[in-house]
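Researcher: Before we compare anything, I want clean individual predictions. No alignment, no superposition, just each chain on its own. First chain goes here; please echo the sequence and then give the structure tokens.
Model: Echoing the first chain and its structure:
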Amino acid sequence: MNPPHLTRPLAAAAALAAMPVRAEVTVLPPVPDAVGFAGAFAGVHGGQLIAGGGANFPDGTMPWDGGKKVWHERLFALDLKQSGATWQEAGKLPAPNGYGVSLTVPEGVLLIGGGDVKEHFREVKLMTYSNGTTAFRELAALPVPLAQMAGAVTGRRVHVCGGIEKPDATAASAGHWMFDLDAMDKGWQTLPPLPGPGRILATAAGIGGDFILTGGCSLAADAAGKPVRTYLRDAWKFSGGQWQRLADMPRASVAAASPAPVRGDALFVISGDDGKHVGSPKDHRGFTRGILRYDVSEDAWSSAGELDAPAPVTLPTAPWRDGFILFNGEVKPGVRTPQVLIFTPPES
């Protein structure tokens, strides 16, 4: 039986000749948690999807009603090679952690930074999974503690950019660091910072040897010293040791699935907070379901369809065969989802 199909083309009355290519989204079993998680870590090792951590409001009480946000350490494993497999408990992270970067590499899953309610972390670990056991190897720490940054792999090089050093920060970093998996003894190397505004919750991708960063939001302090967001549409490519500005996105996108799914020389920005529903969180109608496509060779953005499921933000992706797993996320302010999807980018 074919898994459920969860996309539909974006309709546009005046653009029938330019209808977006249909993208395939299929369903995996939901994670065995009634609420689900935002800012979790996820990756694939040995055909197993390993995911967990992140934060939620486990009793269902939202923060504006006095609810307490809780960071988690539980890990879950799903055998992707076995049809009909179910989630299994897979141990715990070394500590409750969320909103870092997780990247699938041949050696395992990189867990980079993150934080909890009190502090952000510098720690970087390689997570592996074998015979039902999760193990962690300590790698070189980040130069500074970071959470809500974006990261991606280009070849054997790991890039991280942006983020904030403390939970109450009112300015975001434009810092850019690289870790060479073939020269781990060198640690994290400082590269030229992003020329644009420092930002959190951007979307990153690696295409060939290029590192691409799009969207996110910058921060500034208001009169009361609280962080205020500015939603961003700019896009950048780091190639040959320098940054190049790319075409702006058609809309703002904050906390879209990251790293962005890639097919050929195109990347796909799935959902994201476009800033159109800023205001009372109780009245929020959910995040955009639109999928944007960026073609590097053309330096152009286009529509690539629309999710026919609750659109998540603040979620990790993990590559699997021709697709990319989308693990949980936030579908409205404070509201998580246990859904797990596979997005398969179109070939053209």
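Researcher: Okay. Second chain, same rules.
Model: Second chain and its structure:
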Amino acid sequence: MKFSMNRNQFSHQISNVQRVVSTKSTIPILTGIKLDLREEGLTVTGSNVDISVQTFIDQQDADNELQIESAGAIVLPARFFNEIIKKLPDSDFTLEVLDNRQAIISSGISEFKINGLDANNYPHLPEVDGSNQLQISSAILQQLVTETVFSASTQENRPILTGLHLKISADQLLAVATDSHRLAQRQVAVKNASQNDYDLVIPAKSLAELVRCFNDTDTELTIAISENQVLFKFAQTLFYSRLLEGNYPATDRLIPDHSTTQLTFDAKALLASVERASLLSHASRNNVVKMTIKAEPAQVTLYGNSPEIGTVEENVQTQAVTGEDLEISFNPDYLKDALRAFGETKIQMEFTSALHPFTLKPEPATEDFIQLITPVRTF
């Protein structure tokens, strides 16, 4: 096996693969990166069991400057290989694998020899049936994940809640994440080639890693689904993730169907106010911010308190206040995460009582995007 290639292009092309490879694994070969060279190009694969990523570097793409002398395959230690490539002196490099599975990497005045492993021992990628496919823009999927995935649980005591619940019906994709204290729900349109209904839960960590793979260019993304795996195909990359087993809890009943108090805010302005109020609440063990709402005259006030440090009080600018007076306490970090998901837009907050979850929706209110937060009992 022997080839030469532009060094910067190679580093760029394998970056998505490199990120998923773990430096520690119960399967030692998975700490390596697999290189499979054929006459049409180079296939690079990395995996950490939960996620597998494969990228194809096309010999026909002139930007790659890929010159192939002889085909072959090898698994090289990912961390050292990546660091070596980054620090080579010239703009291109040559990699040659000897019969003893030793790889020689040369560039300019520098030459490295590193020991590889037999590529035949590298685990095969999962088989995913390509007949059940959806299509979605990478930009839309990235937005959907960004707006929901932070609400997934990070606690492994309920594994199903560490994932993002996706329900596909006709041409609509509904995404829900909850850790039982807060919930984020987003619905977008997709091209459902099979018109089948799907119900799956993808680990939140997998989706967070997936959206990091997208560059600034919006591209069409194909999603193929099998019994315990999902495959995302885009550009020259295949991204596999396992699916979580179990039944996701019914979250529809958590969203209130009516409200007694409604507020309209500028999301960015409210975020700034909550950040200030939480400066002192973070110093307290409870980490709670209180909001008082008065309809006549319209006034919304945030209170933060730390017995050791002091207190903060801020009147928040609202664009509308309707309904009943209310006093409610909540975790400010949950509200900050929700507000960041809305970006620079108007939002509507709807309350039913001091002890019931409240919701945030874009203004004008729509069921396509809902954030829900459970209040904190302070008495």
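Researcher: What stands out in the second chain?
Model: The chain has three domains: 2-121, 133-242, 255-373. Additionally, The longest helix spans residues 267-281.
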